[in-house]
Specification:
The complex is a heterodimer of chains A (111) and B (114).
Chain A (H helix, E strand, L loop, with lengths): L3 E4 L2 E4 L5 E7 L5 E8 L3 E10 L2 E4 L6 E7 L2 E6 L8 E8 L6 E2 L3 E5 L1
Parallel strand pairs in A: 2-11
Antiparallel strand pairs in A: 1-3, 3-8, 4-5, 4-9, 5-6, 7-8, 9-10, 9-11
Chain B lengths: L2 E4 L4 E4 L4 E3 L1 E4 L5 E7 L5 E7 L5 E4 L2 E4 L9 E3 L8 E8 L8 E3 L3 E6 L1
Parallel strand pairs in B: 2-12
Antiparallel strand pairs in B: 1-4, 3-9, 5-6, 5-10, 7-8, 8-9, 10-11, 10-12
Classes of the chains: A mainly beta (111), B mainly beta (114).
């Protein structure tokens, strides 16, 4: 299995609070991605990174920011969490060859 | 824009039944096509892939053939097991700019009973 961990695995927070989710990889892959998974929508891309300090927006980036200061870590921040951001968040990595490897996910509940 | 359409689930089958999950896509150019599987409580795992027309991807008894003429990539298995119960996602990747950018379908849940 690809070495990808996500933390925390579960989080409950209140509306309006900032939240940061962490993705850590041990594969030294260049590309990293954040998705959210919601019933009836499949997986939707939030942001992705194509190198240290190089990031870009995905399909559903509003309300989210990301940072990548090291190859192995990709952080997703919800600036001010809302109930619509209750979801399961998945991190993925790729070496650019076409296959993405996924982490175990973080279940976030915003009350 | 690019899109992937899968049959809605859940698909409910008895053990040893034949499985088909339909997937069609809309994309310009020549995308690579994938099936990912998500077991309960886990992340997605690549099940199989095909990178050009008429390629057949296969893994763990599952197969799918890249049909450019019908823009389809249907997943099949001859005899399902209870352990195949999971959510299956069809996806395409155009490798724009030389790196992976996946577009997923909404997923199809498969439930297999003994």
């Amino acid at each position: 299995d690809a070495g990808i961990t996500q933390s925390p695995r579960h989080k409950v927070t209140e509306t309006g609070t900032p939240v940061t989710l962490r993705c850590h990889q041990t594969e030294n892959h260049r590309y990293m991605y954040w998705y959210r998974q919601d019933p009836g929508h499949g997986l939707r891309l939030i942001h992705y990174s194509y190198g240290v300090k190089d990031t870009d927006k995905g399909e559903v980036s509003d309300g989210y920011s990301v940072s990548r200061s090291k190859t192995e870590d990709f952080l997703l921040t919800l600036e001010s969490a809302t109930s619509s951001q209750t979801s399961v968040y998945f991190c993925a990595i790729s070496d650019g060859a076409g296959e993405q490897f996924f982490g175990p996910g973080t279940r976030l509940t915003v009350l | 824009g690019d899109s992937v359409t899968q049959m809605e689930g859940p698909v409910t089958l008895s053990e040893e039944a034949f499985l088909t999950i339909n997937c069609t896509y809309t994309a310009t150019g020549y995308p690579s096509l994938f099936w990912y599987v998500q077991y309960p409580g886990e992340g997605l795992q690549l099940l199989l892939k095909a990178t050009k027309a008429d390629d057949k991807g296969s893994n763990k008894g599952f197969e799918a053939t890249y049909r450019k003429e019908t823009t389809s990539f249907h997943l099949e298995k001859g005899s399902v097991q209870v352990s195949d119960s999971a959510v299956y996602f069809c996806a395409l990747d155009k490798l724009n700019s030389g790196y992976s950018t996946l577009t997923f379908g909404k997923g199809t849940m498969l439930l297999v009973s003994p």
